[in-house]
């Protein structure tokens, strides 16, 4: 894209060209838009922890998030009437690459000392393709979130680890505030500044607190009371934005 101060000319991967008043980069933690407009900005950092996920049929009585804390954490998350997923968080200081072949057995082995009900479920982790493994990375842009007529939102500016479960919520709030400020301000630049001012503190809090919980779990910092941190977080995010 090319921002000439009056608008942005955008060329798409299919060769199409169009001109827009503003461009919003909502392209996630590895945002190419961020790389293009703010090449010196902070980069995602690996935390030393990873998350494993696997889907299961959901028992009818599992109607809330179940969390099991420990050096290896796990949890059961209802997703629909029929489906839930299990997550498992593990310290992975060397950030290893796990090939797909055999990854179900590796996930099962991580649960060898889990609670009995989790171990019983773990026996059903048999499909390598069903395992979703992801090293956890975090990132916060402490400087500008925009340049000229191009702005960023969501994980592109504040990728949080999932310990407070607020990443998608923050991205959606960003979009609402950005839209609101664009309708109010005289220029896109003023709207982008007002948007960042309104969003910065809450997003910073979510990213930093989540990272604190993560570090506590893997011994990189003092342990954090997860239950208390979650209750505090709900008090913060229930405030008007
Ligand atoms: C294990 C885990 C659990 C989580 N749990 C929760 C939770 O419980 N609650 C919660 O609120 N959040 C949770 N999150 C965080 C949440 O998933 C993210 O914060 C959220 O998806 C960020 O939204 P986004 O739109 O900014 O980016 P994304 O969802 O990453 O979307 C970016 C999109 O841009 C596309 N894209 C990127 N580059 C290009 C390109 N060059 N061209 C075209 N398209 C491109 C991508 O394909 C993608 O579709 C969790 C995250 C993880 C890893």
3D structure, described in words:
With 241 residues, this protein is α+β, with helices and mostly antiparallel strands. The protein folds into 2 domains: 2-42 and 141-237, 3-Layer(bba) Sandwich (FAD/NAD(P)-binding domain); 46-136, D-Amino Acid Oxidase, Chain A, domain 2 (2-Layer Sandwich), CATH 3.30.9.30. Helix content is 34%, strand content 25%. It is built from 6 helices and 12 strands. The protein has helices spanning 32-37, 103-110, 116-122, 167-184, 188-217, 226-237; strands at residues 2-3, 8-11, 17-20, 23-25, 45-57, 66-68, 73-78, 83-91, 132-140, 146-147, 150-152, 158-159. The strands form 3 sheets. Strands 6-7-8-5-9-12 form a 6-stranded antiparallel beta sheet, covered by helices on one side. It has a 3-stranded antiparallel beta sheet with strand order 1-2-3, with no helix packed on it. Strands 4-11-10 form a 3-stranded mixed beta sheet. Strand 1 (2-3) and strand 2 form a beta hairpin. Helix 4 packs antiparallel against helix 5 and helix 5 (188-217) runs antiparallel to helix 6. The relative contact order is 0.16. The mean pLDDT is 96. Bound molecules: flavin-adenine dinucleotide (FAD). The site of flavin-adenine dinucleotide (FAD) has 16 residues, from helix 4.
């Amino acid at each position: 894209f090319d921002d000439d101060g009056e608008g942005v000319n955008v060329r798409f991967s299919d060769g199409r060209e169009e001109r827009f008043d503003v461009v919003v980069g909502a392209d996630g933690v590895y945002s190419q838009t961020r790389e293009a407009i703010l090449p010196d900005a902070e980069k995602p950092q690996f935390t030393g922890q990873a998350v494993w996920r696997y889907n299961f049929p959901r028992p009818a009585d599992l109607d809330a998030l179940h969390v099991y804390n420990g050096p290896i954490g796990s949890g059961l998350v209802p997703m629909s009437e029929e489906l839930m997923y299990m997550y498992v968080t593990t310290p992975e200081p060397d950030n290893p690459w796990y090939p797909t072949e055999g990854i179900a057995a590796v996930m099962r082995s991580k649960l060898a000392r889990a609670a009995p009900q989790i171990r019983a479920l773990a026996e059903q982790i048999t499909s390598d393709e069903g395992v979703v493994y992801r090293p956890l990375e975090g990132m916060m842009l402490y400087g500008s979130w925009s340049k000229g007529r191009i702005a960023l939102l969501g994980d592109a500016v504040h990728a949080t680890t999932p310990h407070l479960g607020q990443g998608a919520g923050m991205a959606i709030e960003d979009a609402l505030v950005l839209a609101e400020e664009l309708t109010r301000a005289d220029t896109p630049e003023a709207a982008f500044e007002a948007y960042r001012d309104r969003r910065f503190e809450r997003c910073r809090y979510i990213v930093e607190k989540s990272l604190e919980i993560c570090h506590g779990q893997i011994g990189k910092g003092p342990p954090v009371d997860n239950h208390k941190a979650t209750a505090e977080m709900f008090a913060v995010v229930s405030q008007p934005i």
